[in-house]
Amino acid sequence: MVAGPSLGGLLYTYTGFSLPFCSLGLSMVISGLLVAVFCSCKKQNSENTCSECSWKDILVCSGIPDYILALLTIGNVNNWFSASLEQHLYTAFGLVPAESGGIMMIFALLYSLTSPVVGVLLDYGFSTSKLLILGGVSSSLACFLLGPIPGFELLLETVPVCVVSLVLIGAGVASASLCGYLGMLDCARRIGSSEDILNKITCIWLMTLYLGGFLSVIFGGISADVYGFSCSSTIQGCITVIVTIWISCRAFYRQMFNTSSAEKDDQLETGEPFL
Q1: How far is Cα 114 from Cα 140, in angstroms, rounded to an integer?
Q2: What 8-state DSSP symbol labels residue 257?
Q3: Half-sphere CA count of 195, side-chain side, radius 13 A
Q4: What's the rounded mean pLDDT across residues 53-66?
Q5: Which DSSP letter does residue 99 get?
Q6: pTM, two decimal places
Q7: Residues 6 or more apart whose Cβ sits within 8 Å of residue 87
Q8: Which H/E stretch holds residue 47?
C-alpha cells in the first residue's frame, strides 16, 4: 500500500504498461499458494451455533447507520481521486508517472502512520465519534485544498499544497476507518457481545469500505470528466462536510439521550421525581 504507487510508476516508466500488472498478478498467485500450503483451517464444533441476532437487528441498532455513512464517504475520500489524481498531477505540474506515484505514496504512508496513533488515543479514552469528526474535518479541508476550490487555482494549485492535502486525507481516512469499526462494535454491545455479532460487524465494516470504494471511484471519475478535477474535489469536500455535520449532530443527540437516561435511572433508584 505504501510503496505500490511509486514502484508501479517506476515500472511503467521504464518497462511499459504490462510489467506492473504481470508482476502484481504473479505476486498474488505466489501469495495465494503460500497461504494454501502453510495456513491450515481448524475445524470448529458446530453444535447449536445459531445466530443470536439477525443482520437487521444490527443494521438498525442506534449509531451503526451513522458509522456506515461515515465509512462510505469519509473512509473512501482517497478512492474519489484514484481515477483522476495522476492525470491532474500531469496536467497541472507535468509530473511523470514515477513522480506522481511518489506523491500518491504520501497518502498510504500517512494512513499507516496515523492508524496506530488513533488506536493509542482510543486506548487512552478518546471518543470514537470525536476522532471520526476530526477525520471528517481533516478530509474535507484536504478536498478543498487539493482541487483547489474553483477560483483559487492561482493561489493553491501547487505541489506542496497537494502534498499537504494527501497528508490530511491519509490522517482522515485512517481515523474514519478505525473509528468506524470500533464505533460499530460499541453500538452493537447494546444487543450483545457474542462472537456471532463480532463477525457480522466485521463483515458490515468490510462490505461498507469496499462498496464505498467502488462508488467513489465511479462517481469521482465521472465528476472529474464532466466538471473537471477542481469541481470534482469540491463536490467531495461538500459531501464530507455534510456527513461530518450529520455525524456531529447525531453524536451530540446520543450523548444527551444517554445522559438523560442515566439521570432518570438514578432518580428511579433513589425514588426522586423526574421533574
Answers
A1: 17
A2: H
A3: 2
A4: 85
A5: H
A6: 0.77
A7: 224, 229
A8: none
